[in-house]
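2024-03-11 09:14:02 DEBUG pipeline.ingest accepted 1 chain
2024-03-11 09:14:02 DEBUG pipeline.ingest length=554
2024-03-11 09:14:03 DEBUG pipeline.predict start
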Amino acid sequence: MIHQTGGDPDVLASALDSAASGAAVSGRIGRLWSRLAPDPSLGPVIALAWHSKSGTKEELSPADVFAAGFDAGDGALVALLERAGLSRAKVVAWGHGDPVGEGAAPMLEAPGVRGRFPAALKKRLKWQVSSPDDVASSDAVIAACGLAALAVWFAYDRYAAGASARFYPSGLTALTWYGAGLLALAWVLHRVSGTFAGFRSVLAPIVGWVPLALAVGMALQWAPEQAQRSCVLLLALAGLFHASRVLMSVGASRPRAALLAGMAFVALFAWGTEKAWVHPRLWYPDTDDETSGWKDSERLLFEQPDRIDAAAARLRPGDPDRPSVFFVGFAGTGGQKVFAEEAKLAEGVISARYGAAGRSVLLVNDRRDLETRPLATVHGLRRALGRVAEHMDRSKDVLFLFLTSHGSAEPSLAVSNSTWPLDQLDPIALRKALDASGVRWRVVVISACHSGAFIPALADDGTAIFTSSAADRTSFGCSDDRDLTEFGEAFFRDAVPGAPSLVAAFDQAKAALAAEERRRNLTQSQPQASIGAGFAAYWERIEAQHAPAAAKGR
């Protein structure tokens, strides 16, 4: 490709452009040559390569020039070659067996590669970026990083399943989804970046980032709740910074475009993962008790209508001379005890405050107990509302419905237990269930993130709605180490028992939550209320009948 020109650096440099433009771009090394040859720093290197072959009649190959570039020892020049995806060992291999770099000859292993494997693996796991085509980008290092990530997930999943758990290999299928996602992300970054480095030079640091990031992410569940969101953001920024360093190390010509494409892919992958409900669990709590848990799910499934009917049949009838309050509680998420405990507290508080004792039904998902109460499902809620309404004077009595669970911006309330995949509760389904009950006067309290999004669908003249957060805000305190959410504490525990009215209790709870969230520098949850004009006037009769003890004393 480059003919002898007498070894004069000036002559070599002047012939450089024509040599580059006339080169046949065949094979990887040929493409690299056409990209790097116009760089003036290669003029003296070509002379060095020619002198190293002094006395021969053959022309120089690109491999000769690149080898001479590494031999020259100039830091900037070596960095240029490494960013293009070259290494000394690969150049030597091409020079000996595959001068155009089209891949037939094996790459000669640099001395001590096997001995460098532990150090290379350690470097990847510590998020250090290596030169392209280094041993740190070998198949062995990539596989070891992948196994390290699997080990982290296996350990956490086993811990989360509790002391007694059984391994189910079917969860490995879901893990392949995440493996394919990593491969696809590396491919997007490599493809868009315009690098000449090999695909493994991008894949290896991406896979190597996962084990430590996964371990940090798992550890965040023990961090204070107010710090978790900031820590997740910092972890995401660390991933973005790592990806940018990877692109720089492989000589990306379009690093910004590659980063944007990578972020778009990650967002799309996360959305698809959520929609496909991909959750790779390998261990599940093991129990030999055939009367509980998912092992008895078929029996539980068919028992639910009878359990709801039996609970409703035990209801005390309403007072014929004045309006009565009937309570229905719904704890949607069974994986955390906080929701079950909050529903039980709300039942006790409303029963004591508004005379609903003996007039309540609870639908509860609770991994600790699947037997005591009917389970919370969308169909079960519709049936429970209908059965409770049969014991009410639908035009006179008041239904107090309390729902507590995780919430999403879709909007919907999470409904889950350890038995079956369940439909989630959305505002339209809830409105239809309430309307089907035929009850005119309703109080609906929702403790969940984004619960304010339920208000437009539920609001009417005969309904009062109280939510723990605005439609675009989250609420707090739903971790498994708590007995109540922060809204449940402020509203049901602290405000309702002594407040002169339900509206006053809500205002008190809202003010307390705002003060606490400001103190902890949290994004304000902004609890919402919507009270129909007809309901407001009618509810005054209930408040007059059930004034708190402090008010009666005055």
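2024-03-11 09:14:41 DEBUG pipeline.report Confidence is low (pLDDT under 50) at residues 1-26, 96-113, 288-294.
2024-03-11 09:14:41 DEBUG pipeline.predict end
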